[in-house]
Amino acid sequence: MDQSATLSRKSIEALGGLDREYLEFGSVIFLSHFQRALKEYQAATARPQGEADAIPASFAGCGFETAFGPVRIYGLGADSIDSRTFLTLDLGGDDHYVGRQGVPLSPEQPIGVVLDLGGNDRYDGGPQPVSLGCGLFGFGAIFDLSGEDHYRCAAAGLGAGIFGVGLLVDSAGNDTYTLDTHDGEGSAVPGSGCSSTWRETTPTLAASAPRDTERPLAPACWWM
Ligand SMILES: [Ca+2]
Ligand SMILES: [Ca+2]
Ligand SMILES: [Ca+2]
């Protein structure tokens, strides 16, 4: 049959065990801390015009391990980023993200976040589904704060929740969003998925089969 419903008994049973309120509460707590930390960072690194940036151009990045998974920090250069992490922070530059970015590492490490502070970036989820801001059994999110960016996902991404919460938040720029097939741009099975932009100009969203029309990307959120 031409449909994506699972015949797995465990998957069906998991539907009854999902605590949506716990999931929602945990996501709100995480986002509250995330927003506060971002404001503190921006205040600490702000410099008057003409002064040197707080982040030197020579900073190439660093990384360390945590109980939630790896943390990787990239600098102002044009980085190629394909490693999976609990948290990826990029400070600037025109970067190329590949594969599962903003996706939880596992049910035991259920948070995967990308925060990109600047640059015209390219996000390519590759041929596999579940990438680019997909909450697969947890919380998965991409936050891109500036630049003209391009996002492409095969399936289940760009703000999709699969037994979890998935977010794609792009704050500025004339961006493009391409979903090759289905289950993205704010969808959930079950959980919460959200694709959101805040800007004055209107971006376009291009989706190939089965959706083949272009439409403005608008905030969308579903609970199932
Ligand atoms: Ca960079
Ligand atoms: Ca960007
Ligand atoms: Ca952008």
Name the structural class: alpha/beta
List of distinct ligands in this structure: calcium ion
Q: What profile does the largest beta sheet have?
A: 8 strands, mixed
Percent of residues in helices comes to 10-25%
Oligomer: single chain
Rough shape? globular
The number of domains is 1
> N- to C-terminal separation?
23 Å
Strand content: 25-35%
| Strand segment tally | 18
User: What is the H/E order?
Assistant: HHEEEEEEEEEEEEEEEEEE
Which strand order does the major sheet show?
1-2-4-6-9-12-15-18
Instruction: Kindly report the average pLDDT value.
Output: 81
Radius of gyration: 17 Å
Helix segment tally: 2
As residue ranges, the low-confidence spans are 199-224
